[in-house]
Amino acid sequence: MNHPFSIECARRLVRRPDVAAEKDVAGKVTRLYRVLHGRAPKGEEVRLAEEYLGGGGDVAWERYAQGLLMSNEFVFVD
Fold first, then answer.
1. How does pLDDT run across 31-59, given as a tens digit for each residue?
2. Which end is more exposed in the chain, N or C (fewer Cβ atoms within 10 Å of the end residue's Cβ)?
3. Residues 50 and 26: beta-carbon distance below 8 Å
4. How far apart are CA 74 and CA 69, in angstroms?
5. Beta strands in the chain (DSSP E)
6. Sign of the dihedral through C-alpha 55, 58, 59, 64
């Protein structure tokens, strides 16, 4: 989970032009969910992301993206 490869994947995900172009938290979270899960985030997911990220900078976004990359929804196919 904390392997340098995972961290680099999260870093690159946040720096993707389509993700980085989003200016507000909800827009960026929505873009990340579309890229990773192929769906829009639920209202509760956006609220939790906004609460976690607050005014966080790049490191907070990278950690958030890493969490999404390690989520069951991303790792396993139902």
1. 999 999 999 999 999 999 999 998 778 89
2. C
3. yes
4. 6
5. none
6. positive
Contact 14, 61 (CB under 8 A): yes
Count the helix, strand and coil residues of the chain and give each as a percent rounded to the nearest 5. Answer: 70, 0, 30
Percent of the chain with pLDDT over 90: 77
**Tally of residues, the chain:** 78
| Number of domains the chain contains | 1
In this prediction, residue 17 has a pLDDT band, given cuts at 50, 70 and 90, of very high
Domain of 33?
Answer: 4-75
Q: If you compute the radius of gyration of the chain from its CA atoms, what whole number of angstroms results?
A: 12
Supply 45's token pair: 């997911």
How far is it, in rounded angstroms, from Cα 58 to Cα 76? 27
